[in-house]
Amino acid sequence: MASIAKTIVLITGANSGIGFELAAQLLQKGTYHVLVGSRSTQKGTAALKDLQSRDYPGTAELLPLDVTDDSTISEAASTVEKTHGKLDILVNNAAVALPPGTDREQLRLAFDTNATGPWVLTKTLLPLLQKSSGARIINISSGIGSIGRKLDTTSPFHKMSGVQYRASKTALNMISACQYVEYGDLGIKVSLYDPGFTVSNLSENNRAEKGARSAEKTVESLMEVVEGKRDAEAPAFLHNTGRAGAISAAFIKDITLQRDDARATHIISAVGTSSLEKGKAFVRDNIPSVPTPHIYASYNEVYQDASVEAVYIGTPHSLHKKNCLDAIAAGKHILCEKAFTINAREAEEVLAAASAKGVYVLEAMWTRFHPLVQDLRKALFTDKLIGDVRRTFCDFGQDHKLGSLGPESRLKNLNLGAGSLLTIGIYSLTWGLLTLDEHIGAKASRPEILADQNLVDGVDVATAIILRYPANGRQGILTSTSEFKNGYDFCRIEGTEGYVLLRGPYASSPSEFSVWRNQSAGSGAHTRGQQSGSVLEKKYVNFGLGLYREADAVALDIAAGRRENDIMPHEETMRVMRMMDEIRRQGGATFPQDGDAQTVNSSVD
Fold it and tell me: Which residues does 566 contact at the CB level (< 8 Å), separation at least 6?
């Protein structure tokens, strides 16, 4: 019997390969109870016996389960409900590659096992997942199910045969996307994971002597998905490279997409990582086209490469200053991830160096380049669809599972700038600034700030900010937390004649907004709570994640001879950095790099 304190995990196809290794690594943690899903009772019993013989601190039990048989699915769900009352994590891992039979039979069984089965199983277990406070669904897919890679003549997957397996994984990818959208409002996290070419019983080719990666290595990165360490990347296709370079991987994939609306062409000339092995894995998994970029085991080698014109910096916050200064010294233009630096003092130093060298620098606050932002600001400040803006409420929360992370994690290590403010609170602050002030940069107002932070071991796990604009009385109430996931409606802007709702899976990735007018709008009266309905609804679909927009802006600015961007000018970067310094001063969060850098005024100049 499982301990009530343990996390209940069901892994299908857990009697061998990736499923078995995942069960083993979970049991080593001691905090999981694993349900070993197996179609074959004999093989499942043998796998369970093997796991139990290892004396791991975790617990496990056999759960007979054939994902192509609805009766066993129902029986499995009934067993889980009676024994545990809930399910915390479902890993849809069971798969077949080339089943026996005619073409029609092969295709039917591949789809039934790899796509239909996971869909039916998940729907059946949904009530049990909803009883968990941290439910998670992980679908094990494959990169060879990518339509884009199949059509890419430079891809190693272009000529690969096996339509049954490929097509079924393509279907699973879409099922995962639908689950992500449908279950997000239920608080259930959905991840799609590509283990890459791994040793397994899937086919005769999945062998170490043919270059397949060990299941142990693959599962090491899969464990990060299980533990929630890669939630920030969702809904992206998660690969087996682990967290190293996660945001950079997403950025690379975005800017190399074939887009009809592309405003610039981006060539990946060089990649810099901490080791050649990591660099090769990064290129293999994220840049499958040719020519292969130069791979360097240091960042400085990238800066010295004459073929490199601009550098994208996706390292932790505390490394941004050094990375930027080194790139500037080499005469490279820069797109640097947010938060731009640890504090305003470092940001000033970087921008001063860029000005002296005459190179371009842009903070990669990708949300500002989303077309929704421009349409929203037009609705608020030009068309005045809700009258005079009075208040903005914005929340960005992610459950980073901090308790499961080691002290070296960038989410807990103060030396790396850990904390909710610099990681996600910057988005809540940004929405406040964008919706309460029609100006940005040098022309923008300087609101008064009142802030509080919840600190655990010095790391802010929650930040609350009030912005007050004395000249017009506008207020912003902005929050962030790394302990809980916020809802789909993440921002509300109130005006004298109505309100606006902003929606999306994350505050960083908006997908729609709607404008609601009061019944009394236009009559000179205002009765709170009486709405006549939505007068404007706009929905947006990203091709990829949308990171390419900031990259296009860099290319266009450089081509035009500009050294900063109008949407995110240097003064706006400095304004945000100074505000976050003040928020931390009031809230108590400090970094080793601060010294006496934090401001002492509640009204930030």
Answer: none
Domain 244-369+546-581 fold is: Rossmann fold (3.40.50)
Catalytic one of 56, 165, 312, 427: 165
Q: Is 56 a catalytic residue?
A: no
> Position 30: which residue type?
G
According to CATH, the topology of domain 371-543 is Dihydrodipicolinate Reductase; domain 2 (3.30.360)
* Distance from the first to the final alpha carbon of the chain: 61
- The CATH fold assigned to 7-241 is Rossmann fold (3.40.50)
What pLDDT is recorded for position 348? Answer: 98
Region of poorest pLDDT, from 15-29, 359-373, 537-551: 537-551
Q: Domain residues of the chain, as ranges?
A: 7-241, 244-369+546-581, 371-543
Give me the catalytic one of 169, 321, 338, 412.
Answer: 169
- pLDDT digits over 469-524, tens only? 999 999 999 999 999 888 889 999 999 999 999 998 889 989 999 999 987 555 44
> How many Å apart are CA 531 and CA 247, to the nearest integer?
41
Per-residue CA distances from 241 to 172, 173, 336 (Å): 21, 19, 22
217 catalytically annotated = no
The three-point CA angle 403-404-405 to 5° equals: 95
Query: Taking residues 261-275, what's their average pLDDT?
Result: 86
Q: What is the mean pLDDT of residues 299-308?
A: 94
Q: What's the confidence (pLDDT) of residue 245?
A: 58
pLDDT higher than threshold 60 for residue 156: no
CB 394 within 8 A of CB 491: yes
Taking CA 245 as the corner, what is the angle to CA 240 and CA 250, rounded to the nearest 5 degrees?
A: 80
Q: Which residue, 482, 446, 449, is CA-closest to 463?
A: 482
